Amino acid sequence: MRFHRLAFSTVAIVALSAFQGSNQFVRADDPNMVDTVDADAAAATTEAAVPAGDKYEFQADVSRVLDIVVNSLYQNKDVFLRELISNASDAIDKARFLSITQPELLVDKAELEVRIQYDFDAKTLTITDSGIGMTKDDLVSSLGTVANSGTSKFMDALADGAGEISQIGMFGVGFYSSFLVADRVTVATKHPKSDTQYVWSSKNGEDAYTIGEDERGNTLGRGTEIILHLKDDAEDYADFGRLQGMVNHYSEFITHPIFVRKTETMEVPDEDEEEDEFDADADADAEKADADAEKDSDESDELDVSDEEEDADAEKEEKPPKMKEVTTHSWVKSNADAAIWNRSKEDVSDEDYQEFFKLLSKREYGGTNATSWSHFDAEGNINFKSLVYMPQDIPRSLQMGDVSGFKSSMKLYVRKVLISDDFELLPKYMSFVTGVVDSDDLPLNVNRETLQESKIITIIRKKVTRKVIDMISKFSKEEMPEEEPKEEAEVEIDEEGNVIPSEDKEVEEEKEHPYITWYKKFAPSIKMGVVEDEPNRKRLAKLIRVKTNKSDGKFISFEDYVENMKEWQKDIYFISGQNEDELAKSPFMEKFDEKEVEVIYFTEPADEYMVGHMREFNGKKLTTITHEGVEFDDEDKDLTMRRKTAYSEKYRPLIKYMNKFYGTAVAKAKISVRLGSAPAIVSSSEYGQTANMERIMKAQAFAHGQDVRGNMNIKTLEINPRHPFIESLLDQVPDVDDEDAKAPIEVRDALWSVLDTALLNGGYEINEGKAFSLRMMRSIKRQLGVESVELLDEIDPPVEEEVPPEMDAANMDSLNLDDFDLGDVDLGDFSGVGDEEA
Description:
single chain, about 850 residues, eight-stranded mixed beta sheet, six-stranded mixed beta sheet, about 15% strand, disordered N terminus, disordered C terminus
């Protein structure tokens, strides 16, 4: 077992500070030492015999040890509640297990639960469980001895007969995490076999504790009550929202119910005050009625009520009720009903799986359903249960492309208690996967936050990753879901009884497979997996879907491509660029379209990185058609070679001149036998980057000190020997051996235009934009027959009087008086205008 490094510090402190009897040690610089040391003994090389004498026991400074244990093992104060709830759960499990053979243990209290309440005014936090409780001896042995675990002893006693029971606390230090937030801790406990309820109490930093009978008597029935007197900097834990959030985070799936008491203060009508006022008003009204009766005894039965009396009665009725503040308490269940990953798959419905996914991912996915899930048990060196989900929607972080900073949604549990959600249980390319991993025998350090051996996480990651890939693969192979029957639309019938086709009828699109819908969103993650996950690269490659020049816009797999390959075809061909339309029109595609050879379109930046690591699929090499040297095995190799040799001999002067003329703009010029209508094209070397990859590398946002020339590919200019442009250039270029000969400007511009066109067709950028602009200007000048490009003189127009703008009579009909706001215009002055003239 690997101990925390600070545990060794504890041992050192105990060893140095705990010896009793200082006369057993002598300082080296003590003058008395000279008289007590024998010279012969000092020169002896053998070990001295242990002298007979008094025996002393080591005495540890318990308060110092406790301080080190608490403050070095736990980095987060919140874990104190997790530890206490885990201990409470253990105590309840122990009571439930023992009640199988001793049912009388549950007589005093049948409920098996944990209750948490707080008192903000008293600054206390109380955790109560209905577990087995403790006797006085248990208090001494368990709480009076640091790192003495009652749970561990109980599990040892059970040996192999534990059945389904699962105990969480195994180290005996979890209780002391209370002192992270408390100045004083009081524990009241009642064991079923003890007639007395005891109280254990200790202050933070003291060397002692007290145990006595509880003056309140038997208030628990059975179980334990822990009262934490909070420190000044821990008062915020006396809050319902804070406590419920901590329970949800750490102990959400504890088997037993956890209730948190919610305290609310509200205003309600003061009924007591209203009753007093009502009684006083009633007495006054009665006295007044008696007086009025005596006064009006001789008068008429009709009673006149004054206006003042009516107003007084109205005010009395409209007077708002007096309010008072009332504090109410209610218990709120704060953990889930059950950890469904511990249940059999046959007992969990699809609705249960979907609800659990929403519970896990409510923050990231906003309550949407999962696409698929995998529920499995792993057995081997490490046994664990896991439940993983594929979401429907892309996480917000992935939408921004921030894969490195995305936090995994996988959570690690030990016996249904959350240990951490920061472990890398899956590789980063699977960061969209949500789920849980729970192990009963995962070896932890005493703080439960770090694993003893990093290889444990490696094993779990390997198994869970494989299961996620299998889940996605299974989903990709599912049959298309059946479409719901649609109601038949009404049709029109002609006189002969034939159906008249509807002109407005829309062509129904073929329904897309659910995996394709999901793949469109998460394809970059799968491709990243091909790049990073070498052990699973072949499995991930089978999940990739691509479009080709023969797939009619639909996605196919690499396996489908291999099945469609020509008999003579040895390689898997692809071309990369920015969009499918651009790639379909590329000059590189002409020969492949002519031969009906399928070519994959790669249009995403991740594709370039993927093919850089995925060199082959099922023994078929991936080859880009933009590289030089692409050949077709269906052609007569002898005839092809003879033609190439003949063309090379014919165009040798042009090729030599081009190599000298272009300089470093291209590595070389050569004859190509694969071009169709294009006069030339620029290809990359066989093992170099594609033009698309070069563009991606130049666009790196955070590249430091990037060498643009270093990222430039080795370019080859392939010329089409059958194109008239090339034939014409052969006749017009001068002899390369004649140093005095210089090609005319028109020929030089034509040569550069051929290269510029070839670069653009090959997906590259033009070398020099300014030189290109000048060549275009000269070309436009020749086409328009302009002799000079000198600017003309400025015109000097005469001074003219201001003329009002002319109205376009043709648009007068479009004016509408309703468009004008005439709200402030008084039309009264114009009424009758024209009547006199009429």
